[in-house]
Design a protein that fits this description.
This protein has 166 residues and is of the alpha/beta class. The protein has a single domain, classed as 3-Layer(aba) Sandwich (Rossmann fold). It is built from 7 helices and 6 strands, in the order βαβαβααβαββαα. Strands 1, 2, 3, 4, 5 and 6 form a 6-stranded parallel β-sheet that branches. The longest helix is centred in the first third of the chain and has 15 residues.
Length: 166
């Protein structure tokens, strides 16, 4: 089972749009993926809502795709907090991850993806080496928030094909 995680709690963010694109592209490849948004998710302490997400989505997943925006040169605190409150052995150990960074700047959250790689490696996850930085994401989207840039779409397709075989 695959799960695409939108790593911010900002409603209507570019990160959400990119994460939904990954879910759609996986569906086109015949793979049903869960979508997990941080919007409205209380990750400050364990609670029944998080327990259900952990039980129904996180634990059964074998492959995770993290779409993470750049927040102060790293990843959003809400994403780190979600990882921190989870049962790390059941949720993360021995599973696989793919990372995509999103920013309106020029680096596509390269630093954040390296920070997240370190965290996931600590959690005994296998991180795919093709980490995709999507820079100036706001310029790559049309008015409806859909990426229209052919080279970016090609890079995402290559990344997903590699991850499917990983």
């Amino acid at each position: 089972m695959y799960t695409v995680i939108s790593g911010t709690n900002r409603n209507g963010s570019n990160t959400e749009k990119v994460a939904r694109l990954y879910v759609e592209l996986l569906a086109e490849k015949g793979i049903k993926a869960n979508y997990l948004s941080m919007v409205g998710l209380n990750v400050l302490q364990r609670n029944p809502d998080f327990d259900a997400i952990e039980r129904d989505i996180l634990i059964p997943s074998e492959k995770f795709i993290f779409i993470s925006p750049e927040y102060n040169g790293s990843i959003p605190g809400v994403l780190k907090a979600m990882i921190d409150i989870s049962d790390i052995r059941k949720v993360w150990w021995g599973k696989k991850a793919l990372l995509t960074g999103v920013s309106t700047g020029r680096a596509g959250n390269l630093r954040g993806m390296e920070d997240l790689t370190g965290i996931l490696n600590y959690l005994k996850m296998f991180v795919h080496p093709n980490k995709l930085p999507i820079s100036v994401v706001d310029k790559l989207m049309n008015i409806d928030g859909v990426i229209h840039d052919a080279s970016t779409l090609h890079a995402v397709d290559v990344q997903l094909n590699e991850f499917i075989n990983f």
